[in-house]
Amino acid sequence: MRKPDPEDQGAKVVSTDDHPTLGKLLRRLRDRNGWTLKQMSAETGIPVSTLSKVEHDRLTLTYDKLLQVSQKLGIRVSELFAEPEEREEERVFTARRSLGTVDRAVRVTTDNYDYHYMCPELRRKRMIPILTTIRAKTVKEFGQLVRHPGEEYVHVLEGTIVVHTEFYDPVTVHQGEGIYIDSDMGHAYVVADGCEEARVLGVCASGESDHEHSIMNAL
């Protein structure tokens, strides 16, 4: 068997289907900028071999790696999943709308989670809605706690989960309940005893814009 490639850390094996894939979107982003794989690697800090495998849908990137790419490129994570659009003049207000359906979502599969990034056609979103199936049953199985800039809210749709965080005791969250955390605190979501998997809806905010403060000032 082939030994694990150390350059692939932070990336997971992915199976493809009819959903839009991260590989296609990443390749489209590279083409828009006129970059070679080597140039994109230099811009993002992701090894060339990993980028190549992602573009060919042989690997995918975990959320913290997606944040790394977006921060290096100076864009929001949501723009990684958006279709290209013509630049528009700045407007005082927006009136966007998008119906979120699983068949139009961008699917990212890891060992612990099966993500569906909803409403990918909207660019420059301040919130990232993610429908997630959780499979990991223990923190040991999950691995190292993840952390990334921003905040997140997770609401349990099906099953029961246990939330492990860096500074608090584990807490059980049942169907119909939710939890809000600072994302730069190490955290992991695993299924509770007796559950094979759980389904949650999470909303991540990157912290790049003070969205709540802007809304309060507008009231």
Automatic annotation (TrEMBL):
The keyword Ribonucleoprotein does not apply. Pfam families: Cupin_2, HTH_19. Signal peptide: none annotated. GO terms for molecular function: DNA binding; DNA-binding transcription factor activity. Keywords: DNA-binding. PANTHER family: BLR4304 PROTEIN, HTH-TYPE TRANSCRIPTIONAL REGULATOR. This is XRE family transcriptional regulator. It comes from Croceicoccus naphthovorans.
